[in-house]
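Before the break, one more example. Copy the sequence into your notebook; we will annotate it together after we see the structure.
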Amino acid sequence: MRGLSPRSTCPGAILRVYPLPANRIRQAAEVLAAAFAKEPTIMRMVPPNRHKRHEKIAAYFRWSLRSTGLENVDIAVSAADDSVLGVALWEPPLHRAHTLKAALILPAAYMALGRRGLNELASYERAVAPYALKFPHWYLADIGTSPQARGRGVGKLMIDHRLRIIDAAGEHAALTATSDGSRKLYERHGFTPLHELRLVDGSVLTMMLRPPVHRP
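Here is what the structure looks like once it is written out:
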């Protein structure tokens, strides 16, 4: 948008960020599966005692990546060995979870999660639906990094990359923080809290919004 490059590089050319190509879906899903293995919502969708749990979670994220649209998924790649170190899924304005594209690949989600997992996903969506914004905005659905990426600024680089594009278009960005730590991180990127929601398991979600920022 507005002449911005679809790629970003961190100082020293250690990391590169660019849209997810189709041939790296599996690698991206593996990163997310490892990053979210102990996240409460994923724990309910795919319980710890589930047979081949990691494979099921990875299959769910492969479905999620495809249904989001690869052009809306950013990956951070190591310039040293070309490995995927981070993944960020951004739902574009007016994106609908049950579009024709998503419906066509719903069997993939069922195979990954089963009936219980899909019911848990639907329950989560119902809980947050009343807090959905009524105007067009980008939504950071998921962001995760690999263990070897910790402390390297991978998450920050991915967020900054997409926010530059969103700002250039003059659009809002939103997300849901799942912990105090993540809320504070997102506040440093300009997001402000809107609502808090306590789930049945006691976890607290914070809905956050960031207006477009003019960049010289």
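The two ends are 15 Å apart (CA to CA). The domain at 8-210 is CATH 3.40.630.30 (Aminopeptidase). Try to locate both features in your own notes.
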